[in-house]
Amino acid sequence: MQPAYAGCTFPALHLDLIMLFFRRTLARFFIPLLLIVASMPAHAQDRAAILTEICSGDFAAQQSALGQLASAGVEQGETGASWARTIVDAFEGRNLRCGDGMAVIDGDAGAVMAGTLEPVTNVDSASLDAPSVNLRLRAVAASANAVLRLFTEMEAAERLNAANYIDQRREAATGTNIGAALERETDPDVRAVLITLRASLLMSDDDPTNRIVAIEAIAEDATLRNRTMIAEAIKTETDAAVIASGEAALADIDQTLAIGQVLATLYAGASYASVLFLAALGLAIIFGLMGVINLAQGELIMVGAYAAWFTQEAIRVTVPGLLDYYLIIAIPISFLVAALVGLIMEVLVIRRLYDRPLMTLLATWAISILLINTVRVTIGSQNLEFHQPGYVAGGFPIVGDFIMTSNRLFAIAIAVLAFVAVVVVLRKSLFGMNVRAVTQNRSMAGAVGIDTRRTDMMAFALGSGLAGLAGLALSPLYNVNPGMGTGFIVDSFMVVVLGGVGSLIGAIVAAFGIGQINVIIEPIYGAVAAKVFVLLMVIVFIQWRPEGLFAPKGRR
Amino acid sequence: MKRRSFVKGLITASAGSVIASPWVARKAFAAAHTDTVKLGCLFSSSGTMANLEGRLNFVARMAAEEINAKGGVLGKTVEVITTDPGSDWPLYAQLGRQLIQQEEVAATFGCWTSVSRKSVLPVVEQNDALLYYPLHFEGEENSKNVVYLNSPPSSSVLPAVEYLMSEEGGNAKRFFMVGSDYVWPRTINQQLKGYWAAQGIEPDAWREEYVPVGHSNFQTLINEIREFAAQPGGQPVVILTVVGNSIPDFFREYVNQGVSAFDVPVLGLDALEADFEGLDTTSLVGHLNCWAYLQNAAGPSNQEFLANWASYVEANDIPFSPDVAIDPMVSTYDGVHLWALAAEKAGSFDVPAVRDASAGLTFACPSGYDISMSAENNYVKRGVFIGSLNENKSFDILWQSPDTPEPVPFSPYMNT
Question: Which one of B6, B18, B51 makes the best mutation probe of the A interface by having the most chain A beta carbons within 10 Å?
Fold first, then answer.
């Protein structure tokens, strides 16, 4: 069964089940209701029947009832649709309660009768049962809700949202109810969406020209799901023209899907590369330029992420209106906090160990454990919850099945910005020149009057600050907890060593290479094998070229 | 010189804290008396499992306090000794041996992952000790020295998958299995494949993928899931057996790529309330899990348990949420009580006597079921819940078993 198009066939599909249901529940619900129904106007009878079905707890009957509710706007217009929407909302929210041959809706202001929406006083709604809502009914209900919004919403923008939603979730959409909505619709944008939508619902129409129109409408959105739908439809198709149009559509979709797949792979590779690069950028300065093996680099990433979280909490308390921009506001804060931690590390510990690399390794490892446990004791070990503003939540469909996820786009943007900023600082500023001079020849740089101690300190702080920035950029992608940094340390050393110690361009190329190779291997041999392959390739490469991809020329 | 010695001091102190942290730590308030009986805990307070296992130490203490308040066991006060194996699997065995041989505990409660249980197993068998294991797991093991407090797949995973395949549960026809690469996911998936084959489902209806433990980049896999879902052949579902922090990472990418529970529901076999602490679950509503206890279980014993936990957390200033209760907490709690009942019945703390007395014991579990120990093995009969994730990071009960199914330690589907 095709979940996406279930709606267009189900009234017929479940007729026998519905009949069965009526027989089964006759004794429980129907007899008392029949007595009431006899004295009601026509649409009230329909309402009572729908409510009986939805209350039955029988899956097929509930599905059929939701289908009828979705079409309530066809004959009864806005009033009918508005009632139906109330029922669907109550059903979804489990506020619809049934029992004793009646249905009521529980609300904050007291219960109302579901059939008439008039208040009830003599019923204890808490004693009645809410009918069960499983996943498939939720899906149908969500779809029905969107169909009904087409009839009840005043704002064109809301109706447009609803129409686009139905495009994704069609369980309750039928040619009839979308057609009725289209007749009422005045807004051109909404009409355009509905016209395509209705056309695509005519796949099982008797008229072959309508079926061709349907195929064309479906093929407009070239996804694998739609491809499957067309392919399944032309399997049973007899009309030659329809088959030809279907096959042409399939060929088109295949082409788009192939492009989408290539783009998706490139994007996945680029986004993984941006993560690797962000994690490695600070290290490229600390290890690459200064030669300090800093095992606490991952914890500086964690410090940056926690700084972003504290910024978010501070904004939530002081200026909640700016909450959506906390990730932008936190950029300097994460950078500075991590830089400060790095500065303290440098002054207290690392500066004393520049000529003893093995001691630095142990000392920074100890610092990393100290930082992890300090955070764990003071803040706790649970994952922190970050508010997800629109620019880091969800994604945009681009071509075919390729969805560009915004949180990864954000990380890529920060990676690019950080790279540009670092290159500018190192190449154009006096401080950058000092750093380069000190790393090339420490004693000569000292002899020409550069304060090498101060330069070391500032360079270490810069490297730490960049790690903090990475923490901020990665917070929408990863779990933020005290141990988050340990996962990055191996990857960042790998990138820096592969790229060539001391080369920023090398780090970028290495990150891209590792990222891209990873995502190319992963679909073929699995994620475990991808990791093994990449490590093996790095080992072989380092054997062949120990200085890495881009070795700085000159003596070190 | 002074500075250097300060640095040295700092280094030794930090290094020392690493080495010292896993050592057996005795709880200060329960000073050793001759009229006490000791229970040992093997749950990590540091490392990747800290956030989950850490709670269990406190629950074991809470259960012991309840027992002590009623006069203890055989006239003795129960003292709980906790350790920190630091999520380091071999360390569980080492600390387990220390608890049994040096502290002479009457029983141990511990382990979360199957790999840690497998590492403790030879220790408890050599010393003929008792390990109460609180997690649902892959089965295929039946040691007389382990009390399996939670369910093997036959009475947890299979009922949940059967539900998904029923008309009511969504008529699942095709299955995408994603797991962390170790013994639990691989064994579970092996059994599921055997089960589906026995149901006459063709092998092209499922796919199996593994990621390294701790994997976080799920982009490619979720692309593949979307592709799998779009193919014909019926309703797809994902059977998720990744563990630890991979669970939130998986769901975050799932939402961002726009896959909804309506289209492809995920049955997260290790997914707990605690895994969703950092996520906004409004767009994750409808995903499923299955356990022998859910926080929303009806009944007075659950209300009592939740109230006790909340007040225990408040009173002792415990660094975990007072209003989150997860299945392994309840299983550990049940375990301590089952041990106390068995010791009372046996009239002794000797392991063989306690083991013999365990047969047929029943206990009113907070889940609302009367759980019982079967006579022929060390498994506990538990009820089954299927939960559906809601907006408040907890699980609504979608389905629960009418009774407590018989646990089957060795799955008939393993080698088909």
Answer: B51
How many other CB atoms sit within 10 Å of the CB of residue A545? 12
Whether the pLDDT of residue B27 is over 70: the answer is: no
Residue B9 sits at the chain A interface (C-beta within 8 Å): no
A contacts of B277 (beta carbons < 8 Å): 382-383, 385
Residues composing chain B: 416
Output A178-183 pairs: Cβ under 8 A, ≥24 positions apart: A178/A147, A178/A150, A180/A71, A180/A73, A180/A74, A180/A151, A181/A73, A181/A147, A181/A150, A181/A151
- In the stretch 527-546 of chain A, residues with CB closer than 8 A to chain B read 527-528, 531
**Residue A109 touches partner B, C-beta closer than 8 Å:** no
* Amino acid in the structure at residue A462: L
Q: What percent of chain B has pLDDT over 90?
A: 68
Full DSSP string of A85-98? HHHHHHHHTT-EEE
**Residue A134 has what pLDDT?**
79
Asked if residue A485 lies in contact with residue A298, where contact means CB atoms within 8 angstroms, the answer is yes
* ipTM beyond cut 0.95: no
B227 touches chain A (CB under 8 A): yes
Name the phi and psi angles at A524, rounded to 5: -85, -50
The Cα of B301 is separated from the nearest Cα of chain A by a number of Å equal to 21
Query: For chain A, first and last CA: distance in Å?
Result: 67
Which of B222, B332, B213, B321 is CA-nearest to residue B277?
A: B321
From CA A302, how far away is CA A546, in angstroms rounded?
A: 31
Domain ranges of chain A: 2-138, 139-259, 263-482
Burial label, A479 (beta-carbon count in 10 A; 0-12, 13-18, 19+): buried
CA distance B202 to A39: 55
Pick from A59, A366, A479: which is nearest to B245 by CB? A479
What confidence tens digit (pLDDT) does each residue in A466-479 have? 999 999 999 999 99
Residue A427, min C-alpha distance to chain B (Å) = 34
pLDDT digits 0-9 by tens, A106-150: 877 778 888 888 888 777 777 777 887 778 888 899 999 999 999
B interface test, pick of A10, A381, A489, A524 with most B CB neighbours within 10 Å: A381
Q: Min CA distance, B286 vs chain A (Å)?
A: 6
Bridge partners (DSSP) listed for residue B180 = B211
Q: Do B62 and B308 touch, CB atoms closer than 8 A? A: yes
Could you report the per-residue pLDDT of A141-180, keeping only the tens digit for each? 999 999 999 999 889 999 999 998 998 888 888 888 898 9
Task: Calculate mean pLDDT across residues A82-89.
Answer: 90
Instruction: Say if the Cβ atoms of A528 and B211 lie within 8 Å.
Output: yes
* B293 phi, psi to nearest 5 deg: -150, 140
Query: Is residue B224 very low, low, confident or very high in pLDDT (cuts 50, 70, 90)?
Result: very high
**Which of A59, A232, A477 has its CB closest to that of B167?**
A59
- Structure confidence at residue A502 as a pLDDT band (50, 70, 90): confident
CA B149 to chain centre: 10
For an interface test with B, the pick among A134, A353, A375 (most B C-beta atoms closer than 10 Å) comes out as A134
Residues 306-345 of A with CB under 8 A from B: none
Given CA atoms A499, A502, A507, A508 in this order, what sign does their dihedral have?
negative
Q: Check: CB of residue A48 under 8 Å from CB of residue A36.
A: yes
CA distances to A158, A532, B129, B243 from A155, in Å: 5, 55, 70, 45
First to last CA, chain B: 71
Residues B266 and A175: their CA atoms lie apart, in Å, by 31
φ, ψ of residue A187 to 5 degrees: the values are -75, 125
CA distance B289 to chain A (A): 13
pLDDT of residue A120: 80
